[in-house]
Amino acid sequence: MTSPLAIVSSSLPLLAAALFLGQELRAGNDPLHRLGGSPGALLPTHSSASPAAALPPCTTTVVAEVVALDQVLVWNKFGSRDPYGMMYALKRDVVRQGSGNPNNTTLEPGLVQLRSDLRPRPLVLRVNQGECLEVRLTNLLDPTQFGGGTPATRTASFHVNGMPYTSIADDGANVGANASSLATPGQTKVYTFYGDRQGTYCVNSMGAIAGGEGDGGSTAHGLFGAVIVEPPNSTWLHSSTGLPMRVNNQIVSADDKAIIHGFADPSDGAEVTPEGAFREFVWIFHDEAKTVHANPRIETEFWLHSTRDAFGVNYGISGIGQILLDALCHPDCRYEEAFLTSWANGDPALLPHFRDDPANVWHSYLGDNVKVRHLHAGPSETHVFHLHAHQWLYTGDDNRSTYLDSQAVGPGAAFNCEISYAGSGNRNLSVGDAIFHCHLYPHFAQGMWGLWRTHDVFENGTRTLPDGTPIPRIAPIPGRALPPLPSADLPGYPFFVPGRAGQWPVAGYPGNFKPGHLPPQAPLDLANDGGLPRHIIVEGPTQGGLLDKAFVPNTLTS
C-alpha cells in the first residue's frame, strides 16, 4: 500500500519538520504512521518507484544549469553591502574571478563571480504547468569558511517549498535516515520537480539552514530564489529585450521580471481580473541582512541603528539612515516624503552603472496586465506586503473574494497578486510611481520597499531620468498596441514634472550622488503650467550635511 505522502511535497522539510522526522526515524518510530501514512512506510528513497508512478507524465523537461556561489552583494549607491553574500545564478552568467570572458568554462569553487554587467538578483526559474523542471546544481561556494560572517557549512542544495518531486533525492536536504541530497563544493546534484499547479514557490538551500545573522544561515546571506509555474504552453520573454528566456528547453534567462504570453486563457469568472498575456514581477522580501555600512555611525549610534540597511527586496535595500546622515542636505527635504522621493535621493537601492537594472524599480506600460509573484525568503520575521494604488483579490478567480492591497507573508511562503481591472495604473489609469513596502514601519524604514513605475510613452533604453539614471528598455506585451513615442507635447513620466532632481556622478557626495529637491505638489506640479507660474526651491543653505531647520526659503524661481 502506498503512503498518501508518497508524492513528497518539499514543503515538509522546514526546520521543525526536519528535526521531528530525524528524531523519530533515529528512535525507530514511524512518523508517517502518526501523520496518516500506512504502518512501516518510510520517506521514499531515490530508488523508490512510487512517486514517479503516482505523478502524471511530464509533457516536457526544462533544464536549468545552476550554480551556488559566493558574491559580494551591494545593496545601494552608498556602498552598504554584505561582503559574505551568497547567491544562485545560471551557470552561463558566471565567470572565473578576474576574467571578463563570458565564455570562460573554467569554474572552480571559491574562484567565480557573477558577470560584471549583471546586477545580482535572486534566481527566478520558470516552468509551464504539466512540465518537469530539472535543476542541475553545481556548488561553487568556497570550500573553506572565509571571514566571521559566512556560514562554516559549505554544502548547498536547491530546495523548493511546495513543488512535488520525483524522488526523495530531489528534496535537497539531509534528513533522518534518508541519503543526503546536498552538494559539497565542486559537486553537481540533479533535482527534478513537477509543475503540478500554477503558482509561486520559494527556493532555499538546506545546507546551512541556521546560524549566523538572525540565525538564518545561508538564507540570510542571499542563497534563495523562486520557481514560478506558468500557464500551460506559455512563452516567456525578457521584459527588456523581448527575447525568449527559454531556448530548446534550456533556461537562458532567470530574471525577476518577464512577459508571459502565448497560452490559452479562458475566463476565470472573476470580472475584476484581466485575462491573457501579462507582465510578471517577482518580488522577494528578505530580512536579517548581514550589512557592512560605509558610514559606521549607523551601527554605533543608537538613534540611527533602527534605520540601518537590514530588510530588502531582491538584493536591494534602501534604509533611511544614510539619507538622514548624508543625503538630505537641502532644507526643503523634510519628513517622510523626503526619504522616499526619487527627485531628492534617486531611485531606491540605486546602482546606476547597471543600465538594464539600476534600481529597485519595476517598469510597465499603462494598462498592462500585471501579475505580482510575492515571496518571503526569510529567515526571520513575518511581513505585511502593501502595494499602493493597485489591488488584487485574495483568491484571484472568485469575485466573492476579499479585495486587498495588503497581505501578510511568513518565511518561506508565497502568493500571487493578479492586479485588478486595468492592471498597471489601475481603474484611474494613473501614470507614475506606486510604492510597495512592508507595512511594519521599522522594516520599511530599514529598506524593505521599492517602486512600480507605470510609463505612458515607449521607452527604448536610450533615455535617462532627470538625475542621469538610465531608463531601461521596456518591451511591449505582444498583442498590445505600442505606446506612443515621447514628444514635446507628451514627454512621458517623469518629464512633465518640473522638479529639480539630484545628479550623479558628483564627487564629494556620499555615493557620488548630489541630492535634489522635493518636487512641487498638485495642482502646481506640471511643467506646462498653463500660465500659472509657481515657486520652486532650487537652492538653499545646509548645515553640516544635515537639515538647517531654521532656514526660510529665499532663493526662488517662478
Task: Explain how this protein is built.
The protein has 558 residues and is mainly beta. The chain has ten helices and 29 strands. It has helices at 15-26, 31-34, 50-54, 217-220, 297-300, 302-305, 321-327, 335-340, 342-345, 441-445; strands spanning 61-70, 73-74, 81-82, 86-90, 94-96, 112-114, 123-128, 132-139, 159-160, 188-194, 199-204, 224-230, 235-238, 246-247, 250-251, 257-261, 278-286, 312-313, 361-365, 370-378, 383-387, 392-393, 403-404, 406-409, 414-418, 432-438, 449-455, 536-537, 556-557. Strands 13, 16, 17, 18, 20 and 25 form a six-stranded mixed beta sheet that branches. The radius of gyration is 24 Å and the shape is globular. The model is unreliable at 1-52 and 542-558 (pLDDT under 50).
What structural keywords apply?
single chain, 558 residues, mainly beta, five-stranded mixed sheet, globular, disordered N terminus, disordered C terminus
Largest sheet: 6 strands, mixed
Low-pLDDT segments: 1-52, 542-558
* Large-scale geometry: globular
Distance between the termini: 82 Å
Radius of gyration: 24 Å
Brief description of this entry?
The protein is 10% helix and 24% strand. It is built from ten helices and 29 strands.
Set out the fold topology.
Elements lengths: L14 H12 L4 H4 L15 H5 L6 E10 L2 E2 L6 E2 L3 E5 L3 E3 L15 E3 L8 E6 L3 E8 L19 E2 L27 E7 L4 E6 L12 H4 L3 E7 L4 E4 L7 E2 L2 E2 L5 E5 L16 E9 L10 H4 L1 H4 L6 E2 L7 H7 L7 H6 L1 H4 L15 E5 L4 E9 L4 E5 L4 E2 L9 E2 L1 E4 L4 E5 L13 E7 L2 H5 L3 E7 L80 E2 L18 E2 L1
Parallel strand pairs: 1-8, 7-12, 17-20, 19-27
Antiparallel strand pairs: 1-4, 2-3, 5-6, 8-10, 9-11, 11-12, 13-16, 14-15, 16-17, 17-18, 20-25, 21-24, 21-26, 22-23, 26-27, 28-29
